[in-house]
Design goal:
Blueprint lengths: L9 E13 L4 E4 L5 E5 L4 E6 L2 E5 L3 E5 L5 E7 L1 E11 L7 E4 L3 H16 L5 H17 L9 H17 L6 H8 L3 H12 L3 H17 L6 H7 L5 H12 L3 H8 L1
Helix pairs in contact: 1-2, 3-4, 4-5, 7-8
């Protein structure tokens, strides 16, 4: 039997797009999945086992779960997972697959846009949603060409990642982050972008926006207080950055979460 190619997948309908959070150790058995699904585990790590295959989903790999598949999944490391469910046709049976991606943040942004389109239907909505899903699948199809980054290089980048996680609310620069790794600024930016599919400063902004989403969905406080807590110079700067990445203003996003 010929190997399955993502181009053989014909999407007929996009059904849902949701984001879930799972603690480490969570898991369940799923029997005869009624629809196809694409799982984007952008935080943490989850493994799917079924049909004689084991599929990993994390920031570097998407999980393609075919209709009719039965499996158990287990969350190895806590975090959020975006799941897009859809109907599709293929010329042959397809096993579960792990799809490497070069730019998980781009795939995540596409998934978030798709979720908004599903939540607020508009004329030609299905066509737009199919287009977004095909863009996600195209990113996965290109994933095999991801540049190689050695394990030692990943380890040397770790201090920069830890600093970002602890100080995302403070001003920082590529130069300062590079010094933590021992690399030159140019080499640091190149390795970081190859490994995470986005530049260091874009990574910081993405982290701030994710923190903002969580705060806007809670009773944290005013938008001004959230902007200040995340290190933005003004509400205007925060609102502009938030809308650029989500398509919604902070106030509109907060109303949607109510």
């Amino acid at each position: 039997m010929a190997a399955f190619n993502l181009s053989d997948l014909t999407v007929t309908s996009v059904c849902s797009a949701t984001t879930l959070y799972h603690d480490a150790g969570a898991g369940v058995m799923r029997m005869n999945r009624p629809r196809w699904a694409l799982a984007i585990k952008y935080e943490g790590e989850t493994v799917y086992n079924g049909g004689g295959v084991s599929v990993l989903s994390n920031a570097d790999h998407l999980a393609l779960l075919p209709r009719g598949s039965s499996y158990t999944w287990r969350c190895l490391a806590a975090g959020h997972c975006a799941i897009v469910e859809f109907d599709a046709e293929t010329p042959r049976d397809v096993p579960m697959m792990s799809l490497p991606v070069r730019n998980c943040q781009k795939v995540l942004r596409l998934a978030e846009t798709l979720a908004r389109k599903m939540a607020f239907p508009e004329p030609c909505g299905q066509l737009i949603c199919k287009k977004l899903l095909y863009e996600m699948l195209c990113e996965a199809a290109r994933g095999g060409a991801r540049a190689y980054v050695s394990g030692s290089s990943r380890q040397r980048l770790q201090p920069a990642l830890e600093y970002i996680a602890d100080h995302y609310d403070r001003p920082m620069s590529n130069d300062a982050l590079a010094r933590l790794t021992g690399y030159s600024t140019v080499h640091f930016r190149k390795l970081f972008t190859e490994l995470y599919g986005t530049s260091p400063m874009a990574y910081v902004q993405e982290m701030r926006i994710e923190k903002a989403k969580a705060a806007l969905g809670s009773d944290y406080g005013t938008i001004g207080a959230i902007a200040q807590a995340l290190g933005y110079a003004s509400i205007y700067d925060f609102s502009r950055a938030f809308k650029r990445r989500t398509g919604l203003s902070p106030s509109a996003y907060a109303r949607r979460e109510e």
